[in-house]
Amino acid sequence: MAIEHGSAVVALTIDEISMGKTTARKVEIAHKIYDICVNEYGLTPNALIFDTLTFPITTGQEELQTAAIETLEAIKRVKAELPGVLTILGVSNVSFGLKPHARSVLNSVFLYHAVKVGLDAAIVNPTHITPYAEIDAEQRQLAEDLIYNRPDALPHYIAYFEAHEPQKDDSNTKVDPTEGMNTAERIHWQILHRRKEGIEPLVEQVIEERAIEMGVTRNEAAVNVLNTILLPAMKDVGDRFGAGELILPFVLQSAEVMKRAVACLERSLEKKEGYTKGKVVLATVFGDVHDIGKNLVNTILSNNGYTVYDLGKQVPLNTILDKAIEVNADAIGLSALLVSTSKQMPLCVKELHKRGLTFPVIVGGAAINRSYGHRILFVDEQTAESMPVPYKPGVFYARDAFEGLEIVDRLTNDPQERVKFVEHIQQEALRERLKKAAPATENGSTSSKESADTPSSSIRRDISIPTPPFWGPRVLERIGIEDVAVCMDLNTLYRLHWGGKAHGAEFTRLVEEEFQPRLERMLREARQQRYLQPKVVYGYFPCQSSGNELIIYDPVEAQFIAPFEGSTGKRREIARFHCPRQRERDRLCLADYFASVDSGKIDVVALQVVTMGQSASDAVNHLQQAGNYAEAYYTHGLAVEMAEGLAEYTNHVIRQELGLQGERGRRYSWGYPAIPDLEDHARVFQLLPVQASIGVDLTEAYQLVPEQSTAAIVVHHPQAIYFAVRAAAAEALPII
Q1: 324-335, pLDDT tens digit by residue?
Q2: Does one domain contain both 328 and 392?
Q3: How many domains does the chain have?
Q4: Which range of residues forms the domain containing residue 190?
Q5: Where are the alpha helices (DSSP H) in 478-585?
Q6: Are both 266 and 328 inside the same structural domain?
Q7: Claim to verify: residue 642 and residue 696 sit in the same structural domain
Q8: pTM for the complete prediction?
Q9: Helix locations, 303-369, DSSP H
Q10: How many helices (H) and strands (E) does the chain have?
């Protein structure tokens, strides 16, 4: 079921013998589960989430005194020995039996150390978790003594919390939070806490102070301030983001303060010096119109001392390589949102290898993962017979902008460190390749003609076919912003697009104090400034299925033919969609949800294309160019989610017009697991007057422009579900 639906699974380190209590047993069980799930059933490693279990270290039982150590070491080993898998942990079990405030401290410190060794997710009550940096230092030490089983740790821990009440928040007792700080500390505080006001005078003051203290020129003092105050402050911001203490919009606001500070500092730098930590060429690959991730990388790198050459989106391969050669880049960064466009990345690596160029390549984006980065490091054909040939300068996967920064730092610092880093990545990639070399069997799959295109027996054929109110396309005009806004998924907006990482009471506070007021303001401004302009074209078309294909007929002729039951009138085919079929389980295919040619019935399919308009992209670009990084991030997120809201609004119109109830009327978009082929967008454009009516175009890679646009096919069959079709092994990309 997990493979069929493209879902992840959580696996506890328990086997037929017992629960894994030691590191060795936890890792042994994890290997067994991995072999069954990945090697036998073909589950992708990143769909496997291991819970390495933890046990109370608070009972006094001798056999459990090292339980926390065993768990932490197991997380580290599982991540190292089973590349690509994820980990999860029920954290609070470690503190069972203690008083609530004592449990909270131990849970928080244990979670901090688990994340440091590689924990990806945790089951916790977020209201009982305190950021590590905010826990009293003595309490942290007591908790760490207990976690690492130091002498007499448990009685000391219990005694302390018997004598002390819960830690109180005294963060608001100071009127001026920078009182008592020197100039350098104040600058650091303002960058960390996103305070632009007054940063320039502080920078001027500290340059003057350093010039006098060190007996150097203002130019030399400015370089010192950059390296010892400004860059460490941004590193602190990045570290806190990585630890979950800051959400991404706050990081971008810190970057805005940093930009203002650097602009002030540059007035004291000699122009001829051209100080930079390194040069990075960034680009969204050819055919891809999405660049918000790349823009974040640009912001973080440029505010951490690097010179960034941002080539934009839809950048041809030769343009990227020519720029890297021109500026003698220290690295090339490539971004892609979709699986189809991510295929440009290995082409770039192979071309670099072919030309004998030596630029390290950093890849990232929603379409790929670490396993994909490992795979494209090799430039050979990657067949069973071929010898592994790595791209020697290295290919590196960056999960986010700060991992990208860490990679660039390691590539541009000590040369010996760089060599070790590249060798480590190559060895890691080779281990993963060799582990996957043995072909996994395809359970339940067959190469027969019947399996290839025979409709799934699980789909009912006796369902009623709704009657559309009209045939052909129609444009929806004068759609109100408020009508679209109510169709948005606010949880997706706040968490995915606006970076809300908090949970529980903290997330509620974030929504009430930050996100909800911002959303109301931004929707009000969008109405006034008209940078969100919802437009829709949709339509109903007569259709039939034939094997794995959906045949679309002329809607004009449909108006004159007895439409659904046993029609024998002549029908003119005007388009045909190919829908891939699952090779296992129920062998689902989207075409199966429509009446077949053999049934003699004519079915109906709805198509829709929606957009929030080019003005949304223009607004984001204007803010980005002006250095308003956080506002650009928020605006982009709102425009993207409003496009999804508009798609839902249109889907509701279609379901209402067809008289569909319950779950009937699901919409499927191209590029997603059930219908991954973006080339079908061209067929949609043949059927609907998309460009002429709502101003949406297609790129050469069949992506929709403007970015804040979506296309979908609507299926009325009551059994329609969302499912994944896996690509053949030779061309499969990792499922994220």
Answers
A1: 999 999 999 999
A2: yes
A3: 4
A4: 183-271
A5: 481-485, 490-492, 504-510, 516-529, 555-558
A6: no
A7: yes
A8: 0.59
A9: 317-327, 339-342, 344-355
A10: 28, 18
